[in-house]
Design a protein that fits this description.
The structure is a homodimer of 273-residue chains.
Chain A: E1 4-7, E2 10-11, E3 14-16, H1 20-24, E4 27-35, E5 38-39, H2 42-56, H3 63-73, E6 79-87, E7 104-111, E8 124-133, H4 148-154, E9 164-169, E10 174-177, E11 181-186, E12 189-193, H5 203-211, E13 214-217, H6 221-225, E14 229-234, E15 238-245, E16 248-249, H7 254-265
Parallel strand pairs in A: 8-9, 8-15, 12-13
Antiparallel strand pairs in A: 1-2, 1-7, 4-5, 4-6, 6-7, 9-10, 11-12, 11-14, 14-15, 15-16
């Protein structure tokens, strides 16, 4: 794995065993697309990281330091994925917070993932997961390091022709994909599931809501299946139409294409290679 | 921190950044009391670890290897805490499981925690936490590495005279302490909250249920507050009576004392020093 990482500014691939990130998943992360030495939606990623830090009461990392370290890592990078992890650092008695928190700051540059290619633009195949997300309003929206729920949902299939799984919550509301957010169109109106009880409020989701009229609502599986067009989005895949959910087919719609093109034009999502 | 650790059998304090334990909290742990070079309830800890591995689809670690490494670490230890962490190791594409899983096995020996002393046997002060646990039947019972819920509950107070917080779930059922299980006595009958939707099925809880008639039920805060005696338990603190919950006082009861003495006699819980 040709990954380069900085831990608190120093080149390293190893972290203390006693870091609360490992011991308890006590931290947050961001995944940023890198295109031609540019960090897409950098300010939005920093904003969400700050929201997460405030929610978990972790000191907010210095934004200039993060930018300096990230810029150093992505030098000469045409396509890549920058991952930032902020943990609460070491210390504390069990779950209790340390008296003085010194967060750990990890910035890693990964190669562009091979499976995310232009081929996916013809539409992705998805399935409905059996696993159901828990309601947790305190943790909903932020990108924290407790990700067993996503792992359990993603572990349900290993057919490589299935690109994503759609996850519902315990109340049978459609929430999102295991690693993406979900939008759908009915009679020309754009909808996305409400994430106040669970799910990750993705940066591309935020941008789409900001730039379009979007109805944020509770979504049943029936209403999703009756949609005219559906797409998923995240910072790396950008916007991808869903062509199948289990045995149901969906067309690649005009709204999806328009949104994708507008976001690509504004350099919000990468143009896949 | 005078801690000694073995990672996959080798003395080390550092782990790869790319371990899924750090990236996603993708793993499990056990906390074992060590008294006079003996690992208390060793088989029960191994059983729960195995249950957790099966639930998360992580290969079960070799029990002889774990015992050999733990025995090596605790040599000459009079009082200590052995912590085992098993993660899914490195690899995989995002949340997807690696094709070949090579778990990471971490065994650490910590000094006996200063705050757990004989003084606590006169009863602990507790509070009711505002934070509510989510329902998650798939993760309930096992001791996984996604512990932000406990951290959020424990972060609510830093008055050192408060020893533990009691956490309810979203449906207002009493579940457990942030780091302990809970039992209570009404009219001579012993009760403990049902943990099928959330909570950790502690080893000492399991032993108490095995050795006594216990009614496992949904518990309201009102019924807990009306109890004749209440105690908390875990592998390190053993059995400790609750003398206060917020402003309500409780006596140290006969049932609590009998259970504690029986467990100490059978070397199930440590005799505090």
């Amino acid at each position: 794995m040709a990954v380069k990482s900085l831990i608190n500014g120093k080149s390293s691939d190893e972290i203390s065993l006693y870091d609360r990130g490992l011991q308890y998943g006590d931290g947050l992360f961001e995944t940023v697309a890198v295109v031609d030495e540019t960090l897409l939606c950098w300010n939005e990623h920093l904003d969400r990281l700050q929201t997460g830090c405030i929610r978990l009461n972790i000191p907010v990392p210095n934004q200039e330091t993060l930018l300096e370290e990230s810029t150093r890592l992505i030098k000469s990078t045409k396509h890549g994925v920058l991952k930032i992890i902020i943990t609460r650092g070491q210390g504390g008695r069990g779950y209790a917070l340390p008296e003085r928190v010194e967060p750990t700051r990890i910035v890693s540059l990964y190669p562009w993932p091979e499976h995310v290619s232009k081929n996916l633009e013809a539409g992705v195949k998805t399935r409905i997961c059996d696993y159901r997300y828990s309601h947790n309003p305190t943790l909903a929206g932020i990108k924290h390091l407790n990700r067993l729920e996503q792992i359990l949902a993603r572990a349900e299939w290993n057919d490589s022709s299935i690109n994503e799984g759609i996850v519902l919550d315990h109340a049978d509301n459609v929430i999102e994909g295991t690693m993406s957010n979900l939008f759908y169109v009915v009679d020309g109106i754009l909808y996305t599931p409400d994430l106040s009880a669970c799910g990750v409020d993705g940066i591309i989701r935020q941008k789409i809501i900001k730039l379009n009229d979007v109805c944020i609502n509770k979504t049943s599986l029936e209403s999703l299946m009756a949609a005219d067009e559906i797409f998923i989005c995240n910072s790396i895949i950008g916007v991808l139409p869903i062509k199948r959910i289990d045995k149901n087919s969906f067309p690649i719609g005009e709204v999806t294409n328009q949104i994708k093109q507008a976001l690509q034009k504004q350099n919000i999502i990468p143009t896949l290679c």
